[in-house]
Design brief:
Elements lengths: L4 E9 L8 E8 L2 E6 L8 E4 L4 E4 L1 E3 L5 H6 L4 H4 L2 E5 L12 H10 L1 H4 L11 H6 L8 E3 L2 E2 H9 L8 H16 L4 E5 L10 H13 L3 E5 L7 H15 L2 E4 L6 H10 L5 E5 L4 E5 L13 H7 L3 H14 L7 E4 L13 H8 L3 H12 L4 E5 L4 H13 L3 E3 L13 H16 L5 H8 L1 H6 L16 E4 L20 E6 L2 E5 L2 E2 L7 E2 L2
Parallel strand pairs: 1-4, 1-5, 6-7, 7-8, 8-22, 9-10, 10-11, 11-12, 12-13, 13-17
Antiparallel strand pairs: 1-2, 2-3, 5-18, 14-16, 15-16, 18-19, 19-20, 20-21
Helix pairs in contact: 6-7, 7-8, 8-9, 9-10, 12-14, 16-17
Amino acid sequence: MTHRTIVIRRGLVVDGSGAPGAVADVLVEGEWIVAVGALPDVPDATVIDGHGKVVCPGFIDVHVHSEAEILKGCHTAGVQMGVTTELVSPDGMSFAPLSAGRLAEYRRYLRAIYGDDLADWPGGSLADYLARFAGRMYGNVVAQAPHGAIRLAVKGWEPGPASEDELAAMGSLLRECLEAGAVGLSTGLEYAPAAHADARELVALAREVARGEGVVSAHLRAYGDGAAGALEELLSVARETGAALHISHFPFTPRTYALAEAAVREVDITWDAYPYTAGCTMLAYALPPEALHTGIDQLLADLQRPEVREMVRPALEARFPPGCGASFAALSQPHNRWLEGMTLEEASARAGKGLTDLVCDLLLDEELAPLLILPWPGSPAEQEMRLRRTLTHPRQMVASDGIFQGRRAHPRAWGTYPRILGRYVRELGWLALEDAVRRMSGFPAARFGLRDRGLLRPGLAADIVVFDPATVADRATHEAPRLAPAGIEHVLVNGVPVVQGGRLTGARPGRVLRA
């Protein structure tokens, strides 16, 4: 890569630590920040005018489903928001370490989230999988060891506790992932096959992570009414093992808040949240975990049987009560795409089917491909209050939970970071600018051991964002989710401009960062 010198002149430097910003120059030589302060003229340097702009570290997205987009070489949504590093394999989901046969099954299960194209990845180790990303990344990638893939590789879809030999095999795969550079373990306890794991399995894996001073990141076993019990399960694992715990999309309720606050004295706990009052996930998640016990073919065969539909009916009715507002974000079959943007209740009425038959028929017809938008419960005022408490808690950091499938995809994949800066810093004042930048850079870097990222200081990697604080804003909506944000003017990744004057340069200098 050609050596380059870049000077960013007289911007408000917000360094990612939470300290007050100050007007200064920033000098970049090659991949590194070499000086911050009042600098003399630098011959032959490329100059970026920072007057009236904020200059800060690149943002770090700790939860995003971008792997398939990265492998295809088309993942630009992150860098266009100012994200320079992404933690992949969230919710315990990834496509390594898996054999070709298991990979084919897992791809079918996760196609609502990742689509059908994995750029010809044939299966194999996490190290080989990460090597596949080379030359395709606009930003940097950080791996986590995916619990779902690890359990699938060892035990398949079979429910029930793992044997001692199976636990040993899972531990061995986890160690291989950590040796390949994973910063910890990610699990998704609402998704098969990780949903079949018991406390004994979680403790065994968390002990391996604790030995390497990594982090256990977890999508809880339940949200809503079951969130408190699900959080207590993981707090118990952290107490027993000493593992650092990070909760994905923290379910902020009075009970979960009280549990987390009480646990702080014993457990190293953080969490993330996105700045929207609706989630997004695959329709198949609504099935009880025991429905998927053998494999995808058997699940699809079972869903045709009346007695199985009766078995899953209570779970579906609990997931989607009347008035919940759940709507379709993506469907794969052309003859079903008229449903995109429509709520389950509207679709049920239009199709003349009850909820259970609608869901089961669509899962069969689409082979598990439907993707949903899930509004939070409560009134708009209640949702806003919950969001404010979540986003402003000192242990919260920002994540997009971006999913990139469908014409009505969730806008968080294209809008999260500028939305924080535009709506919740500038417009509503929920967060101070310096605190918001810290939650998006220095805090996640420190949490996940990225020691050369997250701060704008000499000697650290030149992952840098320059944005206009007066105009920065998300533009993506549920109707038009892929609109790039406003106000993100320059983005450097490893010292290379990937966004310049608000436009992509085409450069792909990203790399895999290892613990």
